[in-house]
Known about the structure:
- This protein has six helices and ten strands.
- The protein is of the alpha/beta class and 188 residues long.
- It has a single domain, classed as ANL, N-terminal domain (Rossmann fold, 3-Layer(aba) Sandwich), CATH 3.40.50.
- A five-stranded mixed beta sheet has the order 3-4-5-6-7. Strands 9-8-10 form a three-stranded antiparallel beta sheet, with no helix packed on it. It has a two-stranded parallel ribbon with strand order 1-2.
- Strand 3, helix 5 and strand 4 form a beta-alpha-beta unit.
Amino acid sequence: MVTHYNIIANDLQYDAFLPHFEDGNETLLGYMPFYHVAGLMTTGPVRGVLHGFTLVILTNPQLDDIINAIVKYGVSSFTGAPSIFEMLKDYEKTSLVEWKKFKVIISAADALHAATAGDWTARTGSVIHEHYGQTELTAAVMGNPVGARKIGSIGVPICSTRAAILDLEKSQILPQGNWGNLRCQAPK
């Protein structure tokens, strides 16, 4: 069960992992559904209310709506599933946005293909940082720190999150570099 404590703890973890945000001085674009943990926590009402961020909410977003809102309202970070970056990298109006000015650009909710990341950087001059989260763990679990991106990696655990790769058949933690099941524990 996700508790209020989990939500506050995850927000504090996110602040420590991405210290670039200033209370009262950011603008977030809430275009992902608020029933999805990324829409609720990362780009939506939770961080907006807790930090006094301006929220620009799009209830039925199209690519033009997203681009226009970013330009009009001075959105300071951008988070999306890999599919939005795949669409935007080839969209003619993407160049209207100064993507290099964003504090961070995050891809989550699915694996980001290396070709999409490469094409995005070639088109915009900015980099996408992959992150990983789970609704069961409130939201953010792991991520690529700003300036330390590794394509194809979900990054490192955010502060106070424990993570290990397990061999479920043997119920043991595997050494680095092995394949297995990801097990995470966030603050309780």
